[in-house]
Amino acid sequence: MSTRPLPATARPEPPHVLPESPDVYKTLLESTRAIPWKIDWASMRFAYIGPQIETLLGWEQDSWQTVDDWVARMHPDDRGTVVDFCVSQSRAGVDHEADYRALTRDGGYVWIRDVVHVVRDAAGEVDSLVGFMFDISQRKHDEEELLRLHRDLEQLSLTDSLTGISNRRSFDQCLEIEWNAARRSTQPLSLVVLDLDHFKQFNDAHGHLAGDECLQKIAGALRAIARRPRDIVARFGGEEFILLLPETGAAAAALLAQECVARIAALRIAHGGQGAGAFVTASLGLGTVAHVDAGATARDFLEAVDGCLYAAKRAGRNRIETLQGTATDRPQA
């Protein structure tokens, strides 16, 4: 729904007063798809409305008696804003237009654009309103479709195309939001960064299509861990994944990291590549910020946890390394 005054260049000229107008003007007005109308300001009664209104909305031409009929046949969600706007603009003598949903006789709704011209008498007082109703349903449908496509494209831009989980761009945006939220709320914030062990050797042994399938299975397992609406699991790049866990303390985050390891082990994805164990495993970095300091940054936190991941790699892989420097060994699956 939109309401706005018309610029001077867009103001329509008022039609002739139809009952006294030559037949040619009446024929021209009633042969257009736009619906002409006129309202007497003093009585708030329709002096005229085109017969096209019955074709469009189903209401007979002579059923449009007063402004109340126009108001009653407007969608309840549009009624207050549109009526208040049109009345205020008309009283001020300002030409205007408004979009709203008009009720059809069979109970549906049609999007209407009403273009209104204010007619003044010799004394400068408002005498009448004249205008045209336009069916803009197709235009509204097209606009909504474009908005839907835009939302879909935006979603695609935030989704990893291979795994269907969030991508790095989405994670970066969410991290900044949650970092600032943690600073305001003094709630903890945790990260789990995970990298598959010997993944290059996996691709060498099984091929890249098998590698893609492996990543998809890992993503599915990790998605099940991000249970709350604000939890994020994202593909961080290559074979690296990350979990963003707002309002999650160190103990709870440790349990979730252990669950990551368990779920990956339960997949029993055969590895057997050079230097690797029988099944695919992962190394994890884990960190929790109990209270976000004013001078700290989300990037610093991320880099610190990422450093824990690489510490786990150096320490033998298939393990969890925490930001505090403690490590949890995991037996080879």
Automatic annotation (TrEMBL):
Signal peptide: none annotated. Residues 96-148 form the PAC domain. InterPro entries: Diguanylate_Cyclase (IPR050469), GGDEF_dom (IPR000160), Nucleotide_cyclase (IPR029787), PAC (IPR001610), PAS (IPR000014), PAS-assoc_C (IPR000700), PAS-like_dom_sf (IPR035965), PAS_fold_3 (IPR013655). It holds the Pfam family PAS_3. It catalyses: 2 GTP = 3',3'-c-di-GMP + 2 diphosphate. SUPFAM superfamilies: Nucleotide cyclase, PYP-like sensor domain (PAS domain). Residues 187-325 form the GGDEF domain. Its EC number is 2.7.7.65. This is diguanylate cyclase.
